[in-house]
Write a structure and sequence with these properties.
207 residues, mainly alpha, 11 helices, 0% strand
Length: 207
């Protein structure tokens, strides 16, 4: 049983690399089997279809952030404290997996319905709903400005992913090495926090 689990984890790791590099359409089950050094029947024993394989890969990606997001959304703290921690999580994950933002956007453009169906099978959907409910409650009770959720989402996630989507261009223009990019991200994180506060923070009435 332990050996089966090890092989399954190996298959998922290899499939994730291939999906991220080539996309869903550009990766076949034969590609995955060959890269994992197993035959097709063995691969189909673990994952009968490419959709099942993709779900397992996406689950492995979501599992990187899910425990942290669950902790953030259930612990005490102000909304802006939670936002700062969420930003930390995503910057850490994207720094370790820099091709991930492009993969997610590519799959969304390729087949958004397929991606949404996959996400709905995972805990991430629950955390997204919980975050949206928390934000709407804060807005209704006057602790945050009333801003469309779409505006909030786009502001946060565009600022989070664009440095990674444009990393090659940024590095060519501004940074000589990875350390300089890492230092930039520290300052960029503060910029995101400031923008979120400018968007949502309620200004106390003047006396």
């Amino acid at each position: 049983m332990k050996n089966n689990n090890i092989l399954e984890e190996k298959i998922i790791t290899i499939a994730k690399q291939l999906f991220i590099e080539r996309g869903f359409d550009g990766t076949s089950m034969s590609d995955i089997a060959a890269a994992a050094d197993i035959n097709r029947p063995t691969l189909h024993y673990y994952f009968r279809t490419k959709d099942k394989m993709f779900q397992a890969v996406f689950q492995s990606i979501v599992s990187i952030v899910s425990p942290s997001l669950q902790k953030i959304f259930t612990e005490e703290g102000s909304f802006f404290d939670k936002i700062e921690k969420v930003i930390d999580v995503y910057i850490s994950v994207f720094s370790e997996n820099p091709a991930l933002p492009n993969f997610i956007l590519s799959e969304a453009n390729r087949d958004i319905d397929h991606l949404i169906l996959t996400v709905k099978t995972l805990p991430l959907a629950e955390y997204i709903n919980r975050a949206e409910q928390m934000i709407q409650k804060e807005m209704k009770e006057g602790r945050l400005k009333e801003v469309p959720i779409s505006t909030l989402f786009l502001t946060l996630y565009s600022m989070l992913i664009f440095p990674f989507l444009s990393k090659k261009v940024l590095s060519c223009m501004f940074f000589e090495n990875e350390e300089e990019f890492r230092i930039f991200l520290l300052g960029w994180k503060q910029n995101i926090c400031n923008q979120m506060k400018a968007l949502l923070e309620v200004t106390p009435p003047e006396r």
